[in-house]
Amino acid sequence: MNVQIEIQLIAIVVALACSTLGVFLILRKMAMMADAIGHTILFGIVVAFFITHDLNSPLLVIGAALTGTLTVFLVESINKTKLVSEDSSIGLIFPLLFSIGVILISLYAGDVHLDTDSVLLGEIAFAPFNRFVVNGVDIGPSSLYVMGTILIINIIYVSLFYKELKISTFDPGLAMVLGISPGIMHYSLMTLVSLTAVGAFDAVGAILVVAFMVGPPTAAYLLTDDLKDMIFLSGIIGTISVILGYWTARIFDVAIAGMMAVMVGVVFLLIFFFAPDRGLLSIMRRKKRQKYDFAQISFLMHVINHEGAEDEREELGKNTIHEHLGWNKEFVKDIFNNLYSSNLVYIEDDIIKVTEKGRDLAISNAEEIVNGI
Amino acid sequence: MSLINIFSDYTLRTVALGSALLGAMSGVIGTYAVLRKQSLVGDAVSHAALPGIGIAFLLTGSKNIEWLLLGAFISGWLSIYIVNIIIKHSRVKYDSALGMMLSVFFGLGLVILTYIQKIPDSNQAGLEGFLFGQASTLLKRDVIVMSIVGGAIIIIVALLWKEFKLLSFDPEFCQVSGFPKEKLDLILTTLIVIAIVTGLQTVGVVLMSAMIIAPAVAARQWTDKLSVMVILSSVFGGLSGVIGTIISSSTRNLPTGPVIVVIISAISIISLFIAPGRGIIWRRMRDKKNKKRLNRNIILNNIYNLSTEGNGTQGYSLEDLSISKGDFNFPINTLEKELENLETLDLVKVKDKKWYITEKGINEIEDFRGGLGE
């Protein structure tokens, strides 16, 4: 395998591992907790490193993952006192742990082969240099194996506890009644989030992990109402962002992981604007369409209300009607032309009249609106 | 290295003054962010400022603080604007939009920083300082810029005091009272962004959010009054700025931001525990006291009930009391201990291992029942 493919493969595995859990994070409104965990694992990595003195030790991964769980626990303890709101609790805990981590690294910078930049920012370009060697045979970059294992753990977790996760996410009350502890689901999910963040930190850095956890699921959320589809779609969106990001970064010779995060944002914005049902453009088109339809019915009703009345010539005159509808003249003209071409209105002696077809349409619509109320 | 240097060392004095200003400024503005439950806006804005710093440097080629802060301001503000657009026009939740924009903008910032590094002779050294802050690089002119910005913020907060107060505590009432809620919202958000951006040089993009949240959380514990909270919050912020700067400049390789954050976080956590009335320790003590009083009254009430039902002069053994009617049953040894306490207060007396209620005890329990509205 060449280095280029290896880098992309690692990043895709990271994106998949992140988005599998990320779907549940955003549905549970825990996106900012993921951000907090992304920061605090630095503390865990530093402390675990002081104990193990080995950056590749599995203990390091476990120790750091526990810090993520500790973060969740601390935030909830503070939140439970009701002295501080939830967002402030998050904002109080993670900078503290993160700062302690940075200070420890700075103080022992000489003895530690660990610097803040690499934990925080990561450098995926270096990821393939660390090889996994079994019996003297090089079988690929070790971060691919680490992240692959984490991805498999996440997939097993989500498929085994799919029902429990789903119920406790959408209806914690029902989950309690059914004997599923929302607390256990919460903590197990957050522990895996920490584990994933730790595994991914040396590839993409602690902050960009958040882009992969939150971005693709949020984009997928705009495309579907089905939880399973959402998981698959966010995997696909993550993969696309990774590949786009890699090649764009290569062209401009800039930070690869950073560019991947940017692409997550770009793909999200594209979906935000152009999604078939929930995209901004189709929402705006729908709103415009509805406004137009409503104006047509109002126009017809106005004609029906005033036909045959004394002030008919004034109210329904083809040059004066816009004043009585209180609409812009161009808009009225537009509506009239449309109605005329659909054979719903006609003009007789400069007075606008409504056809039988127009009358039926207006009245049935008006009834619908009244019944709706 | 210590307090003495602050007066003699010109650089240190500049730096400490800058940090104090920053702490005070973010303390004031953080009060509103925390009260409005927008604490994490600070986190998003500070991360999102990074690309703005890079772009400003690319465009102007200078490291003048005004340009860099302007860039940071625009990109920080833009991120919040995009977040608001997203939540207004789609079903995406606030926290998802915030988390995503934060990391995407930060990613863009890294891309731009690496791009700058590739430009030969670009003299970009120092831009990385914005990650964790380098208070030691603060110059006199930086401090002047900070004082102008800080002064402006304080004047605006003072002028719009009533409006901001209303907006923080009762936004609906603010709107129906005819205040331009959206505009006030915009001004407050802009002030938050300005305060954050000004602090980036000292504390850094990653940790600046703590300067918004922690002083206000600490101040909140000590008072229920907005004016006191604003002042306390700025004092806490300023204090931690000065202390943090002195500590970090006394040790080599110690970035300023994290040290300041540890200090202000410590102040908040200590406040959470010891603040009078609200703090955890006070609450525990009050709970304990209430529980003790309640236990005492339950036991006294029991004896009182038994005595009024019987002939009044009868005494009761521990066993009688422990199985007597009542909603609470105490273990025998707790009961005995509580009875002994009651005896020292002259509310009951003991004779031949039988317990009697005294006149004083009867008065006490009748008062208590009266208080309950029986």
TrEMBL record, chain A:
Q: What are the subcellular locations of this protein?
A: Cell membrane
Which UniProt keyword terms apply here? Cell membrane, Membrane, Transmembrane, Transmembrane helix, Transport
* Membrane topology of the entry: Multi-pass membrane protein
Q: Name one GO cellular component term.
A: ATP-binding cassette (ABC) transporter complex
Offer one example of a GO biological process linked to this entry: transmembrane transport
Could you tell me which SUPFAM superfamilies the record lists for this protein?
ABC transporter involved in vitamin B12 uptake, BtuC
The residues that cross the membrane are 6-27, 34-53, 59-78, 90-110, 144-162, 174-197, 203-223, 230-249, 255-275
User: Which InterPro entries does the entry link to?
Assistant: ABC_BtuC-like, ABC_TroCD
| Name under which the protein is recorded | Metal ABC transporter permease
TrEMBL record, chain B:
| Keywords from the UniProt entry | Cell membrane, Membrane, Transmembrane, Transmembrane helix, Transport
InterPro entries, per database record: ABC_BtuC-like (IPR037294), ABC_TroCD (IPR001626)
Q: Per the record, a Pfam family? A: ABC-3
Biological process (GO) annotations held by this record are: cellular response to iron ion; response to zinc ion; transmembrane transport
- Is Acetylation one of the keywords? no
| Record's bilayer topology term | Multi-pass membrane protein
Q: Give the family from UniProt.
A: Belongs to the ABC-3 integral membrane protein family.
PANTHER family given for it?
Answer: ABC-TRANSPORTER METAL-BINDING PROTEIN, METAL TRANSPORT SYSTEM MEMBRANE PROTEIN CT_069-RELATED
Q: What is this protein called?
A: Metal ABC transporter permease
Q: Which organism is it from?
A: Anaerosalibacter bizertensis
